[in-house]
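Teaching assistant here, posting this on the class forum so everyone can see the example we discussed in section. The complex has two components, and the goal was to see what a joint structure prediction looks like when all of them are supplied at once.
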Amino acid sequence: MTHLSRRSILRGSLAAAAARPFVGPYIAKAAATTASVWFAQGFVQDEDVSLRKAVADYEKQSGNKIELSITPFAPERQKIVAALTSGVVPDVLANNPGEILQIYGWQDRWMDVSDVVETQKAQYSDTAIVSGQAYNNVTKKVGQYGVPIRAAVVPTHIWRPLVEKAGFKVEDIPKTWDAYFDFFKKVQDNLRKQGERKVYGLGFQVTANGVDPYNLFMAFLLGYGGQNVVSKDGNLHLDDPKVKEAAIKATAYLGGAYRDGYVPPSAINWNDADDNNAFHARLMVMDVDGTLSTEVAVKEKHPDWYFKEMVTHGTPGYPTDNQGKPVPAIVGVTCWMIPKGAKNVPVAKEFLKYFAQPKVVGEFIELGLGRWLPVMPALAKSPFWQDAKDPHLRGYVQMGLLGPTTPDYFVFNLAMAEVRNQHVWSMAMIDVAKEGVKPEAAVDKAFKRVEEIFAKYKKA
Amino acid sequence: MSSSFVDISRPAIQRRTFARSLRGGLKGGEYTWALAFVVPYIAVFITFVAYPVVYGLWMGSDVNLYRELFADPIYQSTVVNTVLYLALGVNVKMFLALLLSGFFMRPGRWTKILLLIFVLPWAVPQISTFISIHWMLNGEWGFINNVLYKLFHIEGPSWLNDRWSALGAVIVSHIWKWTPFWTLILLAGRMAIPLEIRDTAKVDGATGLSGFVHITFPLLANLYLICTLLSTIFLLGDFNAVTFVSGGGPANQGHVLATVGIRNAFDLARPPLGVAAVMSALPMVIPLVIVLMRKLRTAEVQL
């Protein structure tokens, strides 16, 4: 009988450890069919269910395994930044927040996925394809790093009963920009006369939290004709008189509405969900907020709200500019990406090619109740999006996919992402709203900051 | 001949002595077992203590980060907020805890029941309570302003819209949340004072305020100081109260170092800038830790 001494145990352990790399081909082979995928949790459960279904279908068809990690929105963002900082990355992740694609694209941290996009290139909208691109400051070229899967725009959400209580009809709402928003001031005035002490006309997020205030300001900037703020080549055009005039008008309107009491005072300190909560509590007549989350969040529990009482203004309904021309919708596109350092790129790419198929990605969007838009115009023709009984979907898909659209401006220049995250536009709105600063002075200050930020991202 | 023998042997003796001292007097197998037990602890220490600290120092080592940080107006207001948060939050809380621990020393069933109720804020989960406070302070639809209007027809202010009232709300929330914990610690400290000392003092006429000033406080002073230092270090890293009560608002004017660090690291996707924000507190933290260590050494001979 062999005597087990301390030395023999230590020797045996060392030998086993040394032999480990040579005795593990089976495990290595198993791992070659596995890819880890990260995605942000949905606002409604159906979004997560639809993702799990798409993943399960892929696993069944391919025989590969997907380790899916669904994390709430804000922690996932932290998880992604931490992963890219440490270098311990998953095989696939989606751009949460959207600008992550451009931020780390600049640093050459993504795999090129143009071969995946190529498989469906004819299907995608131009806005979707461009949104998956980023300038790479190492290769000095623009690369295709994202495979577009879904999109969102910023429609307006309105309570029909509050408009009617004020003595108006939704059909009375004017179609041009200033008149459209002024209408809700009249609604508030009338409601106040009826004793509604705390109902506000306009749900403007004049806050310095999250992405909502940037989206709001940019919608107004475009509404007033400031489309050229950053051109497609990434150049900043603050010296364009049209851009400056639009910025001043946007700051004046948004800050002025707050100052004049048409926006809830607490809006200056809202976080991402506060406007949704206030709107659902009918404390505002209208809200300007991205995606259809406001509507789909109540669809199951309050079908009456969804089908009768809430109005979504995409196109038609969304205001034109003051001259009657359509305003392009800024589209935020969610893309799949493969980080450099991913362990299983072949499976990752195979999974993305599967997911990018119109049937798969279309079903993924529709099972998620249509909170997000498809990125392929052909998908907008499906019975789901064209359902005449649904009061929200047709206008939403028209606005974000079939009508005039533009990618978010950080796609053209990464500096715009920092402008958003530093809340430069928010500070201009708040200066006017709360501090009584003149819009021209607030815009001058904001422009100076924007120029400083852009100076950091000069393309070679 | 003899001198050369001595010259050669000396280093050998020294080497043996050095090796023995390394082994701490352990022989043969004992030394191997000792190593086997110590190595996992060293590995854990290096992985979870040394590595993160060194990695953090490395991430925040670029001087340019601090130039950028100090030029940021949000950082400048953050430093002022942090100092106020620490100075008021810690000292008001500890002073209240000191007074309340005296109250809860009183005999009687009602005191015990009150103590039970008093510790509830500390016992309930902090994030949900801070979110509740955020909603209670909402200017339009919050509980506080609604009560003011219903009872007195007063339109309350938007509490979280002003930098100082928002910071005040954060400080009060922190005090409300953590005073019970430190009260219990000081209560335990008071209970550790031997009865003989208190009885003797009473015989000598040191009762009430006089007893507190001459007997209780001198005996509690070291514990009080240690608690204050610990609380300061804890509070410096506090993220929850600011994030969930005021959100660092209004307009990013209400941040403290911990929240601005998270903002820089993740909202701006610049972890080194976030680390730099937190590291900028080191000149204050290091002296605090040194004083705390010294006090912990001297605490053994008191009480």
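For the discussion questions: Confidence is low (pLDDT under 50) at residues 1-6 of chain B. Chain B has 15 helices and no strands. Think about how each of these relates to the inputs above.
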